[in-house]
Design a protein that fits this description.
GO terms for molecular function: endonuclease activity. This is Endonuclease domain-containing protein. The protein has about 130 residues and is of the alpha+beta class. The chain is built from 6 helices and 4 strands, in the order αααβββαβαα. The longest helix has 16 residues.
Length: about 130
């Protein structure tokens, strides 16, 4: 039995091999904001929690995911201001929340210019669910 199938409903929410391939490509082509955020969260730097980057979840690839917290972090670039993209983002958030996950969105600008505040918001989320 494939070990990924054992975890598919938990860690990956049934993501297909195609989604895993997309995630790999995204990890190889991170935005500047994603790279900066990754440097701040990798190696369990936030309250000891492990974050994964470009993590497959169902039909999506989350920018960042902490399985222990059931927390998805999305870093949104300028195109997320487009009305059609905002509708897609709302559906994506609703789909992920329906699966028992929490979603927090930050803009590229927040990550690039106010990273300590971004980290504080994540720590506040952690404190609220603890």
């Amino acid at each position: 039995m494939d070990k990924n199938k054992n975890h598919s409903e938990n860690m990956w929410k049934g993501a297909s091999p195609h989604i895993f391939l997309n995630a790999k490509k995204l990890r190889e082509n991170q935005t500047e904001a994603e790279e900066k955020f990754w440097l701040a969260v990798k190696d369990n730097q936030i309250e000891g929690y492990k974050f994964r980057r470009q993590h497959p979840l169902s039909i999506y690839v989350a920018d960042f995911y902490c399985h222990a917290l059931k927390l998805v972090i999305e870093i949104d670039g300028g195109y997320h201001l487009d009305e059609e993209q905002q509708l897609l983002d709302k559906k994506r958030t609703a789909d992920l929340e329906f699966q028992g996950l929490n979603v927090i969105r930050f803009t590229n600008e927040e990550v690039m210019y106010r990273l300590p505040e971004v980290i504080d918001k994540i720590k506040a989320f952690i404190k609220n669910i603890s």
